[in-house]
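Appendix B: a complete holo record

For completeness, this appendix reproduces one full record from the ligand-bound portion of the collection. The bound molecule is 1,3-dihydroxyacetonephosphate. The inputs are the chain sequence and the ligand SMILES; the output is the full three-dimensional arrangement of the complex, encoded as structure tokens. No fields have been trimmed.
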Amino acid sequence: MARKFFVGGNWKCNGTSEEVKKIVSTLNEAEVPSEDVVEVVVSPPFVFLPLVKSLLRSDFHVAAQNCWVRKGGAFTGEVSAEMLVNLSIPWVILGHSERRALLNESNDFVGDKVAYALSRGLKVIACVGETLEQRESGSTVAVVAEQTKAIAEKISNWDNVVLAYEPVWAIGTGKVATPAQAQEVHAELRKWLKDNVSAEVAASTRIIYGGSVNGANCKELAAQPDVDGFLVGGASLKPEFIDIIKSATVKKN
Ligand SMILES: O=C(CO)COP(=O)(O)O
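The structure of the chain with 1,3-dihydroxyacetonephosphate bound, as generated:
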């Protein structure tokens, strides 16, 4: 089964309502390949989700940046998967390295979150990635395998999962992974899925790259056989996000 190119825009904790409307109108005016070629999902902060969803073109979709690990209730400050479903928010990003590092989200906790969100019917962008220290000590593959294992142990269906490989050292640093570095880890992740889940899941699961992707470097990355798209931070707030969406056409040639 062909893997449809996937481009996610993670807006992180940025924007005013005016800025958000401006970004959406830029996206709405853009000419991009059809939904058959590329799946586009933007992820504004929670408070802007309804606004963005109401204004955004119908061929693009929205994602939350997090959700609570189980059913909602007395969890002050959290947003539940049920609430996202209630607002018809189809996607959620889970396990982003900023949350793993700054909010101490463990592999196990992320695995539980992914399982719960899927059980409620959400689609999940699950993030994995190594720190610079881990890369330099040669443990990149072991780290991402461990993070993926913590998810794989808790889910039985990968249809609604996109795996995002986001090396921590490349996030927000301008230090993008080379196409060869990205390809190498993506291929290892796919092999891990083949060996530990199934050949079908390995062949059909999209593995996207995140970390300093921009309009200038996206095409070369997109050309790598195991790079199925991107999760974009900083550049997703700028018009060059449209160029990144268009890099999907690299796969067609
Ligand atoms: O964290 C990221 C996407 O989730 C990547 O961020 P940057 O594109 O700003 O490096």
